[in-house]
Amino acid sequence: MTDIVDPLPRPLASPVFRALWIATVVSNIGTWMHDVGAGWLMTSLSPDPLMVALVQAATTFPMFVLALPAGALADIVDRRKLLIAAQLFGLGGAATLSGLTLAGLTDASILLAFTAAIAIGAALSAPAFQAIVPELVPGPALQQAVALNSLGVNIARAIGPALGGVIIAASGPGAVFAANALSILGILAVLARWRRDAPDRHLPAEHMVGAMRAGLRYALRAPELKVVLIRSVGFFLFASGLWALLPVIARRDLELGPLGYGGLLTFMGLGAIGGAMLMPKLRGRIGANALTLAASILLAIAMAGLSQTAQFVTAAAALFVAGLAWIAMMASLNGGAQATSPGWVKARALAIYLLVFQGSMAAGSTLWGSVASRIGVPSTLLVAAGLLVAASLILASRFPLGRASALDLAPSSHWPAPLVDGAVEHDSGPVLVTIEYRVDPGKLRDFFAAMQEMRRIRRRDGAIHWGVYEDTAAPGLVVETFTVESWLEHLRQHDRVTNADRVQQEALAAYLTGDGPPVVRHFVTR
């Protein structure tokens, strides 16, 4: 297995990517089998809809807690070693739960605890798995690789639930948990054989806390990423009701066994595969914002239909439609998070998206399970569906998706190296940077308005203070200032500036006079 792949047009032509993709599909099948087994077992251990919904919460809450630390780790440590450690942790949790269940020792609390433990391993893995894709395939094949990963998830969704139902019917949930543990071994084998060449760093790696702060700062200061996060909350908080209550619907309302429950999830997976095939054509015709609005409304219709059905066929049809809508939203939101984050913070940006996704799912699962305990499952699904439509209509108009597609977030490297007389230690600071502009006095008002975008960029990339001032004795002489914690952090700002930022900076030239560029000075506290 080679470390560096040849520039091939197809992702699966890369030996490492191909092996890891196959192993991940197998592992995801095991994960879906576990989800079916855990949900089904909980309906036997406790009939309370809240307890059944807590299985979904136990699956998603660890991602909410650990997504950002995992993303920071993925950006500052060897991703291969992080992935191996996380997979071993998940393997231990799955194997232990299997042993306890086969021995008849699992109760509701044990099931929730080990489901959460397995989810912790997945949470530690998720940002790193997404971040290594550019290392495994050539640039022209990256979009195909991302699409293949989404397809793999949906293949697993189509196979895993049905296979899990068969195993539950034949041998019980303990056997499903054992199969999930075995499914992890393939990923471990591929990662063990992969000889990763870590990228060269000309600056020291960030510390954990600083890396997390930088990721959060970027998310708060990048408006395009904020749109993705807001839309994610507005969708997953209400759509989570479907996942949380489906085991109760299958067992109590439809009176299905494990095979029937797995069959329902298989139809949802088939719908997702169909949606994945339709996505490129639909996005090209109607755009991302209209597509996500239509998907949200379609999912709400499916939820409402599921709440009123008492037949397997109509429930399966509703879930097929739900699967189509679900993958349209997942692909659009995940793609939006990818498109709005540059390489230096990509794992952390994706981790924040996963944090919002899983946090909304965990909160929604708990909420809808609690509501269902009071007003019943059908009424709860109708309420969740109605709120999903209302939230989607409001957010699609106020926070439209798709504006990030024109952003070029590749590093521009257009900032010249700072001029220094002698050496400056990395921990020297704070650092004050001043940029002196000569502005046409007749354009000062427009110049100051344009500088507000520079304020956002400086603060996003590490400035702790920012200001812009005009000289009272020399109209048109304007000084921009920003302060950074240390010299090392300012050097990182040079690495973080993108081509999109460069366009914004170059636009300021329309307001300037004179032939020379703005004068930049650096002041360091000794």
From TrEMBL:
One Pfam family per UniProt: MFS_3
Major facilitator superfamily (MFS) profile domain boundaries: 16-403
Transmembrane segments: 50-70, 82-104, 110-133, 175-194, 227-246, 258-279, 286-306, 312-329, 350-369, 375-396
UniProt topology in membrane: Multi-pass membrane protein
Gene3D superfamilies membership: MFS general substrate transporter like domains
First-listed, main subcellular location of the protein, grouped into a coarse class: membrane
Keyword field: Cell membrane, Membrane, Transmembrane, Transmembrane helix, Transport
Subcellular location(s) of the protein: Cell membrane
InterPro entries reported in the protein's UniProt record: MFS_dom (IPR020846), MFS_trans_sf (IPR036259), TM_effector (IPR010290)
Name of the protein described by the UniProt record: MFS transporter
Organism from which the protein derives: Sphingopyxis soli
